[in-house]
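Bug: token stream looks shifted between consecutive jobs. Job 1:
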Amino acid sequence: MVKDPAILNHGALMARIDNDRQLYQVVLEMFLEKTPQTLVELELAIEQKDGENIHFLAHKLKGTTANLGAEILKDSMLTLEQFGKNNNHSKTGAVLKDIKTGYADLEKEINNALTDLDKDN
């Protein structure tokens, strides 16, 4: 399976956690557990045109995705963070669509990585 480092840079994440495979698994599982609720909150903030909350939630997710090495999703979060900071709602819907697509790709990549870890154990 070819892994796209822009979706999830496994090597960068492993380097950040000193190649600890158990911690790698925990980090990925926690991301899958916690992120969907934050995305729901972000979507609600966009619907309500709540720039402050858009900024806060996008910033939070930007950090999380940056730590994973999920560059594509991190870049979308940065864009949305700036829109929220500037209270600019003209393109937030389009960016949210990109984020949903990016999250689906990332979720698939993480699930594949977790399956590979299970095979190795």
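Job 2, same session, no restart:
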Amino acid sequence: MGVIAPTLGSAGRAKWCTEDTEILGENGMHKPRILWIDLRMRRTEIQIPTPFIERCEIKPAGSKTGGDPIKDFVPEALCFDFDYPDLPGLQLLQETKQTRPSLPLIMLTEQHSESLAVWSFRNRVWDYLVRPVIDAEAERTVESLVQMLAQGSERRTRHLNPAPPIPDEARFRGVQPPGDNIERAKTYVQKNLGTKIQEQVVAQHCEMSPFRFSRAFKKVTGITFQEYVIQQRVKEACRLMNNPNASITDIA
């Protein structure tokens, strides 16, 4: 499948790149046409939420060279798909909204913060979604989009104020996504519940410093690593207590 994508020109400004690509989800019925712009740092297959695939015509975006994909595919909405938003990607979103204010913009991101959400809505992002997106939430977004498009574009056009500054946290490219390493840590804990688990050892297993691992673990899970270990041991003890063949020694 061909791909389309924004890249940076010699002056550091974003430009569009395009190549022929397949439109997904055609079934003879009118569906909102969405240009799905992949700005993720990880080069894995785009994971588009199911309701979008089923109810919309999607033109994916990637990283080739060429012209303006909006000329090749006339979208009714744009989705900017981030994992860890960076300065060039957010500048592209900002400039796109300034030049095409009537197009609804959806922002999809893995990294979330209050300042990023506030920035997105100040830039008139129509909907802001955080991965993982449950189907019910995606369905709500699609249904709202369908209803809004049915009302006509004149209600979506509005005057835009000067663009607000991009959050400082997005000015530097993110490092390896912490969620991948946290899953490795969880697996390590499950395999070693019966032994002494040292956070420093687990951090080394995840190829992270103890300080960075501690912060990343709490950010992803909402609790500290030691709280997670205790939580899992309590769950395992409860499971063993329900087993009539388990001895007190096994549970301890």
